[in-house]
Amino acid sequence: MERPRHQGMAKNTYMRWRLPLICLLWEVAMIVLFGVFVRFDPEADAHWEEEKKEMNVTSDIENDFYFRYPSFQDVHVMIFVGFGFLMMFLKRYGFGAVGFNFLLAAFGIQWALLMQGWFHSFETGKILIGVENLINADFCVGSVCIAFGAILGKTSPIQLLVMTLFQVTLFAVNEYILLNLLHVKDAGGSMTIHTFGAYFGLTVTRILYRPNLEQSKDKQGSVYHSDLFAMIGTLYLWMYWPSFNSAISEHGDAQHRAAINTYCSLAACVLTTMAFSSMLQKKGKLDMVHIQNATLAGGVAVGTSAEMMLTPYGSLIVGFICGIVSTVGYVYLTPVLESRLHIQDTCGIHNLHGMPGLIGGIVGAVTAAAATEEVYGKEGFIKAFDFTGSYKTRTPSVQGGFQAAGIVVSLVMAFAGGALVGGILKLPIWGDPADETCFEDDIYWEVPEDEESDVYHMHSPGDKPASP
Amino acid sequence: MERPRHQGMAKNTYMRWRLPLICLLWEVAMIVLFGVFVRFDPEADAHWEEEKKEMNVTSDIENDFYFRYPSFQDVHVMIFVGFGFLMMFLKRYGFGAVGFNFLLAAFGIQWALLMQGWFHSFETGKILIGVENLINADFCVGSVCIAFGAILGKTSPIQLLVMTLFQVTLFAVNEYILLNLLHVKDAGGSMTIHTFGAYFGLTVTRILYRPNLEQSKDKQGSVYHSDLFAMIGTLYLWMYWPSFNSAISEHGDAQHRAAINTYCSLAACVLTTMAFSSMLQKKGKLDMVHIQNATLAGGVAVGTSAEMMLTPYGSLIVGFICGIVSTVGYVYLTPVLESRLHIQDTCGIHNLHGMPGLIGGIVGAVTAAAATEEVYGKEGFIKAFDFTGSYKTRTPSVQGGFQAAGIVVSLVMAFAGGALVGGILKLPIWGDPADETCFEDDIYWEVPEDEESDVYHMHSPGDKPASP
Amino acid sequence: MERPRHQGMAKNTYMRWRLPLICLLWEVAMIVLFGVFVRFDPEADAHWEEEKKEMNVTSDIENDFYFRYPSFQDVHVMIFVGFGFLMMFLKRYGFGAVGFNFLLAAFGIQWALLMQGWFHSFETGKILIGVENLINADFCVGSVCIAFGAILGKTSPIQLLVMTLFQVTLFAVNEYILLNLLHVKDAGGSMTIHTFGAYFGLTVTRILYRPNLEQSKDKQGSVYHSDLFAMIGTLYLWMYWPSFNSAISEHGDAQHRAAINTYCSLAACVLTTMAFSSMLQKKGKLDMVHIQNATLAGGVAVGTSAEMMLTPYGSLIVGFICGIVSTVGYVYLTPVLESRLHIQDTCGIHNLHGMPGLIGGIVGAVTAAAATEEVYGKEGFIKAFDFTGSYKTRTPSVQGGFQAAGIVVSLVMAFAGGALVGGILKLPIWGDPADETCFEDDIYWEVPEDEESDVYHMHSPGDKPASP
Question: Where are the bilayer-spanning segments (chains A, B, C) (predicted)?
């Protein structure tokens, strides 16, 4: 059931040649680049049998695979099911939410393996990949999924792929500056993933501002079942966030601690979200938008500090604050951002990733600055902040300063990068939808006829139902 | 679309100040108590580097985190997605099912960390927490999720929080009596989680009996899609139950064995559930209520014995019986409980957790009593039942007796505690819904307009559909 | 709401005595056989404490449980949620998709433990089972789930159980021939699971050909929400496939490598699927059928070679090709198979498992034939292909030949076995549905009234909606 008004559009959303061309060309490029550069890490290479002896490893269980693979799988679920389903709340954009997220993430992880590999795992001309690289690639793509949330429903799949290409590149540069040049700790990515991803996406959506978007306002809401699908995304993000924040921490106590801190922060966040969701409504009812999103802010906000000695009660405090900040953001800030600053943030990523990401960066800086040998132990102190080699003399307060600098760098990269990419995406060649067809699957997807008729023609008597 | 009849209710379901107040106050209390009492376990503390040497641990992989974290994540999914979605079968209570479960579990795990900590991990004035504590907190909350099933749709979120506070407390006391005083084995919680949780919940719902509940009878059923959502809950509970029953067993063979026994029991349970579901219907058709629930009874019923030498065929027998008992319960017992005993059990927890929990306790007692050194090996025998210290001389048959005593204690605690808490929840201050608005999300939730109109006004010609 | 036309059917779909009888009898048989044959593997037995010393194992973490349990749980999710939800795309067959998959898999894993046990773990009269056996049982059942896809909606639960009984048996025989007699490597089952399962299922559906199936054509499509449910299945299969292909590989580098290769292949596959899905449609829109299925072909096609030194770029190439082959298959081949060869393949398993399985077998043969000591290292080479004992002198090219023979054997077994089982299922005693009631849940399931009325009677003015 093609509705005629789409045909008469000024905008050309026809994807038949453009999308396949980009997908195929870029995938061929990936194959060539992987062929030239990517090989297995020693722990994934068949030479491991010999390597083991040299490294004096006595058991296969010492392979990094067993330290990180369970966390990797949890992170993988967060990227594909977590983000994909979280964005399914719109009543007629479920295919786009989960399908485009699938597309951009599948491309993004390949490009991220290369970009991050060149910066971090490049040895004698080759990128050597193991399970930790897979996690980092998923992390990198996470920041693209976040930015996708801001422009959800307003962009073509080609725009999303273009954005992914650039954002992954910029992510890798920013990550290199933070981790390698500033020697900053950010295992759960409050700065590199959330702050960068959110402000990047917000800048892009600002540049793609659509003044007449209210034409598709009726499609910007949810329906009962779309809210339930979105809760699948929410819960998987919430449950697996301890894995996210601990996935690339040092073996042993650091991974253990990061999981506990995240667990605590997220639990507290649920209670303050519920409290403020009810309080800020005249009718006192809970709002699914808040429950789906603000409950996750606690995980974002301990991203930097979870592996540090934040302590369980410190985590509770962070989660407490972030549930409030995020919920208040949804109620008061999002409308203002749109009306005053012309930032149309479909999923409210500013409330879920932007502000909590900044808080996470600050908490990380403060926690690092407050570190003492007494709290960490002599060896634990050095291990936790990697104060070795040329960083042997760095003090906690200096580390705190560098952590703070990391926030600033991430913001600058996000604004500059977002402006650049937004400008590129504004070119009229990418097939984006017209204002009145935003948030609608049937521009880019074959949508089954019957259900569509359920929604659009429920009351038209001439319509034939599926079965007699 | 507020329907006027809600406004005229005698019952005041307005949550705006009550719910936020409780959430915020209790969360502040958690922060204070965590600040005073909760610290990291040595294996999660940055001093671990030094600790390792003292404990003569050679590798980080020996950290308890790697023994238990994958199981923890599975248990976490069971609590939040498993229970949350299982209860989503009601046609108009999906938000409440998953959302209130989220709220009570998020609060409950914090309170459980404290309560269980005081009883089990309290050292020199501090509660030291690690991954095993997180699992135990999730377990404790599991018993609250079970009880929630009995009162699903008939209570306010405040009542659920109050119940959680008391039930977690009583759970910890009961657990202490069983594990520490009676020296009973119950790794998968047939007694502590299922029997206690179910009979506690049934007592509460008995006291909250609503004689006129048939006023909302049309909302007590499912619709096609709500049954599919519920199957997500069912399957995650079913698939991850081997992790549940093995999560806190001893390292090595005990964890391994517990997973295998549970896998076997659950598989058998599916077949007898299907058999009896078809057999007990005149039309011979399968009933989703049975498939969603009774298929899980096999996991409940090996909760105590899974880590023992129950053997795979023993597990099949237990699963076989429980699929039958549970399905027969749904068909014959649940209606009688309501009409004769005035126990309105929304989810049928008596069939899924009550009777199978009792069976599980008994199977555990018998399996323990039948243990021999020949079957377990000399060392394995002592390790399996922890017959050390003051329990060095305990014999299997005595252990069996104590296991049986554990069932009785759990039941007494459940009835007494349920009566107390039911009485508290009956106070007219908690904002519970009127009989005719039970099982309906829009009392406590902002429900999207369009979908609501789909259901309530599908045929009213004046209604405007979402799109032209 | 029983519609009268079902009653007048020539076909008797009444399950009341037949289904329970089979379920109960077979489950009793399982209990007896388990009682006679099945015991715990030493690593799951309480004697492990003593065993450890004999085996010189220093730590419990060396128990195979910790090497494989996380992968096992992922595989378990793929079988029950992955396949179950993937098949939920039909508008009125959600209960059957997830419920019958649940039934056949629960029975199948028990029978597979026995069948595979007799062939592979039979020692001194007993089958000793551990976590690896659980994975293998799930794998075996995976091939039945695949075959189920071809006959989805057209068979009774009894037929499915009968098919499971035979297919598991034949699977175990085929697996024994390949792994033990031909000494073939196939850790991810491109041949044993996918090729065998697909061509077995296609043969069965060919024999059960229904010339008048277009009578239920209106029910063969999807609706909006059923497509979203199916995406849950797709994503869990996609995300956890690295666990599937690595689950039973050798400890250490082989597991590590298998996960990486699968990750890469699947990522590439998504891009070419999207490309061809758009390209092959005149309107250039993406088709959910392709996204739900063809994106997974990359995982199938590295099933044999993932644990070998396929390398990341080799994996990308395989994924690239399979996304194309699979999508083209859905567009052009499936209709031809039905019209010319009378193969009615409901889920298109030929495109998802058949062709990619064959490609996987070939890629495995080529990769094995191309193996050198330089690439694998001296010890790694022997370990990777298990060139020990009587296979000490086998060369890579000979191994490649045997791998190719494995494909042929799997195909022959599939065609012969499928013909046999198809013939048995054609007997008029199993209660299969009439042509016009295929793809409809309410033949075998109690379907909630209201939703049914939503779909069938949406416009009948006399119908009473659920609520006023």
Answer: 21-40, 72-90, 97-114, 134-153, 160-179, 191-209, 221-240, 260-280, 313-333, 402-425
Q: What is the pLDDT of residue B124?
A: 87
Cα(B211)–Cα(B195) distance, integer angstroms: 26
Identify the burial level of B84 via C-beta atoms within 10 angstroms of its C-beta, where 0-12 means exposed, 13-18 middle and 19 or more buried: buried
Within 13 Å, how many C-alpha atoms sit on residue B338's CB side?
Answer: 19
Per this entry, what is the length of chain A? Answer: 468
User: Three-state SS for B451?
Assistant: helix
Give a yes or no: residue A456 inside a domain: no
Judged by CB atoms closer than 8 Å, whether chains meet at C379 and A463 is answered as no
Residue A467 resides in a domain: no
Q: Do A455 and B467 touch (CB under 8 A)?
A: yes
Residue A420 domain boundaries: 36-41+68-443
Closest CA to A100 of C279, C262, C291: C291
Tokens linked to B63: 């950290």
Q: Compute the nearest-CA separation of C160 from chain B (Å).
A: 13
Three-class SS of residue C129? strand
Q: What residues contact C192, with CB distance under 8 A and at least 6 apart?
A: C139, C143, C171, C174, C175, C178, C179, C186, C410
Q: Is residue A324 part of a domain?
A: yes
- Label residues A315-331 b or e (16+ Cβ within 10 Å = b): bbbbbbbbbbbbbbbbb
CA dihedral A416, A421, A424, A426 (to 10 degrees): -100
Closest CB to B466: pick one of A218, A224, A379. Answer: A218
Q: Using CA coordinates, name the residue in chain A closest to B97.
A: A228
The answer to whether the CB of A95 falls within 8 A of the CB of A19 is no
- DSSP characters over B105-126: HHHHHHHHHHHHHHHHSEETTE
ipTM of model: 0.94
Q: Please report residues of B whose CB lies closer than 8 A to that of C144.
A: none
Q: Which CATH number fits the domain that encloses residue C399? A: 1.10.3430.10
Mutate: best of A245, A279, A286, partner B, most B CBs <10 A: A286
CB contact under 8 A, B256 and C131: yes
Look at residue B157 and tell me if it is in a domain. Answer: yes
Cβ count within 10 A of residue B389: 7
**Residue in B17, B66, B450 closest to A67 by CB:** B66
> CA angle B69-C130-B179, nearest 5°?
50
At residue B356, the pLDDT reads 98
Helix, coil or strand: residue B184: coil
CA distance A425 to A165: 12
Q: What is the pLDDT along chain A (468 residues), one digit of tens a residue?
A: 344 444 444 678 899 889 999 999 999 999 999 999 999 999 999 999 888 888 888 899 999 999 999 999 999 999 999 999 999 999 999 999 999 999 999 999 999 999 999 999 888 899 999 999 999 999 999 999 999 999 999 999 999 999 999 999 999 999 999 999 999 999 999 999 999 999 999 999 999 999 999 888 889 999 999 999 999 999 999 999 999 999 999 999 999 999 999 999 999 999 999 999 999 988 999 999 999 999 999 999 999 999 999 999 999 999 999 999 999 999 999 999 999 999 999 999 999 999 999 999 999 999 999 999 999 999 999 999 999 999 999 999 999 999 999 999 999 999 999 999 999 999 999 999 999 999 999 999 999 975 444 444 333 333 333 333
Read off the amino acid at residue C311: T
CA distance B15 to B156: 9
Least Cα separation, residue B349 to chain C (angstroms): 21
Please state, in angstroms and rounded to a whole number, the distance separating the CA atoms of residues B107 and A319: 13
Is residue B51 very low, low, confident or very high in pLDDT (cuts 50, 70, 90)?
A: confident
Tokens of B279: 């057999």
B225, B252, B317 member nearest C451 (Cβ): B225
Q: Please state the domain count of chain A.
A: 1
Residue C56, Cβ neighbours under 10 Å: how many? 7
Which tokens in the block code for residue C102?
């649940």
